[in-house]
């Protein structure tokens, strides 16, 4: 515990007057509770700490575990609440549904207690799993950057101060404090892809020399590259299609300038235009790449051909690349 520099670790929390710690009762977030309290104790002035545990209603023991966190928080003098997920529990994709519900409950609770930051205890091991998971799913640079240490979500900031710390350091923190953390059996259930990664793939990679720590460092490098690429993309957009962009109207960029952009930047520019004009959120990277190949194949050809993606119609015109709202379906479904 002595090697952890608490001031450096928690400096991002200091920008806030009230922060909400997300504590499942597992070793990582129990250590978050212990270390944040230790850090706060040493400050004359710092944020007020609050904690919350979500009971997803998925395991019998969950309520009791949440109450154990409540007792520990009380001992530490940190106000704690148990938040219950009583919405519909789907049978497929339960882990993702539970995660979405958890963040929604925590965000709404943060709002109700006036906290502007939500703090989770994701570690470098979680980061390694996330990166591998995304690599398998075919992510690009932005996805391979893993979880951000700090992210703005609407009115509050999501902070992950432990992203460079290994789980072992946090387990050791709990042990040194004599606090027993909860072991969630779903973390070891081979029905879940993450559990299989943790149990099989990560140890095999470590045996070949790619440790979880190495993967987390890789994610940090990808984040650096992604931030640089984001900046270049913003500059390119500013140059070829200055904002504000009209709503519901076509956007046009100079065709030759667009085609002359480095491919990664052209893809990002295209992604932004499609997302703004379309109504289906961000387009998948693989589909954007296919659209880009189609655009370059259209150079030198004439005719009004266009392609649609994520609710946007894309057309290469004589002087411009046009991105417009996709025409409504020709045969709309009856509304009654
Ligand atoms: N039920 C929960 N209630 C509150 N916060 C949670 C809950 N589950 C997860 N979190 C937050 O999200 C982080 C990452 O979740 P994850 O599922 O990876 O961890 P965990 O297995 O619950 O165990 P740990 O507490 O050791 O991280 C946790 O560290 C914690 O900050």
From TrEMBL:
ATP binds at residues 24-29. It comes from Ancylobacter crimeensis. It is found in: Cytoplasm. Residues 19-199 form the tRNA(Ile)-lysidine/2-thiocytidine synthase N-terminal domain. GO terms for molecular function: tRNA(Ile)-lysidine synthase activity. Ligates lysine onto the cytidine present at position 34 of the AUA codon-specific tRNA(Ile) that contains the anticodon CAU, in an ATP-dependent manner. Cytidine is converted to lysidine, thus changing the amino acid specificity of the tRNA from methionine to isoleucine. It catalyses: cytidine(34) in tRNA(Ile2) + L-lysine + ATP = lysidine(34) in tRNA(Ile2) + AMP + diphosphate + H(+). The keyword Nucleotide-binding applies. Belongs to the tRNA(Ile)-lysidine synthase family. Its main location: cytoplasm. It is an enzyme of class 6 (ligase). The N-terminal region contains the highly conserved SGGXDS motif, predicted to be a P-loop motif involved in ATP binding. Its EC number is 6.3.4.19. This is tRNA(Ile)-lysidine synthase. Keywords: ATP-binding, Cytoplasm, Ligase, Nucleotide-binding, tRNA processing.
């Amino acid at each position: 515990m002595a090697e952890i520099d608490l001031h450096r670790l928690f400096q991002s929390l200091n920008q806030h007057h009230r922060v909400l710690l997300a504590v499942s009762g597992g070793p990582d977030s129990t250590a978050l509770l212990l270390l944040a309290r230790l850090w706060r104790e040493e400050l004359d002035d710092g944020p007020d700490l609050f904690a919350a545990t979500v009971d997803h209603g998925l395991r019998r023991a969950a309520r009791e575990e949440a109450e154990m966190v409540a007792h520990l928080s009380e001992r530490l003098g940190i106000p704690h609440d148990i938040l219950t997920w009583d919405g519909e529990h789907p049978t497929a994709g339960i882990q993702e549904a539970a995660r979405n519900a958890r963040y929604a409950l925590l965000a709404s609770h943060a709002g109700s207690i006036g906290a502007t930051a939500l703090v989770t205890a994701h570690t470098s091991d979680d980061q390694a799993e996330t990166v591998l998971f995304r690599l398998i799913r075919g992510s690009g640079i932005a996805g391979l950057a893993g979880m951000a240490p700090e992210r703005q979500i609407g009115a509050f900031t999501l902070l992950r101060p432990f992203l460079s710390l290994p789980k072992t350091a946090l387990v050791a923190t709990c042990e040194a404090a004599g606090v027993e953390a909860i072991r969630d059996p779903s973390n070891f259930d081979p029905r879940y892809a993450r559990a299989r990664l943790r149990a099989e793939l990560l140890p095999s990679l470590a045996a070949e020399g790619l440790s979880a720590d190495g993967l987390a460092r890789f994610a940090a490098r990808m984040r650096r590259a992604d931030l640089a690429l984001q900046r270049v993309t913003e500059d390119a957009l500013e140059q070829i299609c200055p904002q504000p962009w009209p709503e519901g109207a076509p956007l046009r960029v100079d065709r030759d300038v667009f085609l002359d952009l480095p491919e990664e930047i052209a893809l990002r520019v295209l992604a932004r235009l499609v997302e703004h004009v379309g109504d289906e959120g961000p387009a998948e990277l693989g589909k954007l790449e296919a659209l880009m190949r189609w655009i370059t194949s259209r150079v030198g050809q004439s005719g009004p051909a266009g392609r649609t993606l994520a609710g946007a119609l894309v057309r290469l015109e004589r002087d411009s690349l046009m991105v417009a709202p996709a025409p409504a379906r020709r045969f709309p479904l009856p509304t009654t």
